[in-house]
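User: My collaborator sent over this chain with a note saying "see what the structure looks like." That's all I know about it. Can you take a look?
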Amino acid sequence: MVLDVGNMNDWQRKSPLDWETYVNKMVKVAAIEKHEYEGWVLTVDPVSASIVLATFLENEKVSISVVLGHAIQEVEILKEGDDEMKQRLSCIFAPEESKAYSPEEEEKRKNALKTWLETNHIPVTEQGESGRTLCVAGVLTIDPPYGPEECSSSNEIILSRVQGLIQGYLEKQQ
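Assistant: Without extra context I'll predict from the sequence alone. Here is the result:
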């Protein structure tokens, strides 16, 4: 079947709820020009209908491919993902640090950073329901696992200075 440019294919006509049923499943995608792709569905872009596939290679490396929505002709589910596979897939784009800390270690990191900031006369408070977020001078927040990347502020100067301080603090800890 040849699709005219401008015609949406069956895959593109599906709703986001339909696409969601493919997430965390091993699929085979038949695309135009007889291309075939296999992998675990990480997500489907709701605008373009493109599928993001993950394939696990040896030595824990992951290959990510995107099959563009307009090129997809058929998607066949080969295998359901079990809980372990869902966990592996959900960790692919998680930052390295956040994978490594237990709640106890996270609490220890937070308290050590808070103490260090206070020792350096930087006003810091805990905020949020569980007090997991540190707030510096009321204008900057630091979320777990409390590294420079987890700082956010609308004030670029304060953001960059505090990120630099935290980077230096973390380098001294190692």
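A starting point for your reply to your collaborator: The first helix runs from residue 10 to 13.
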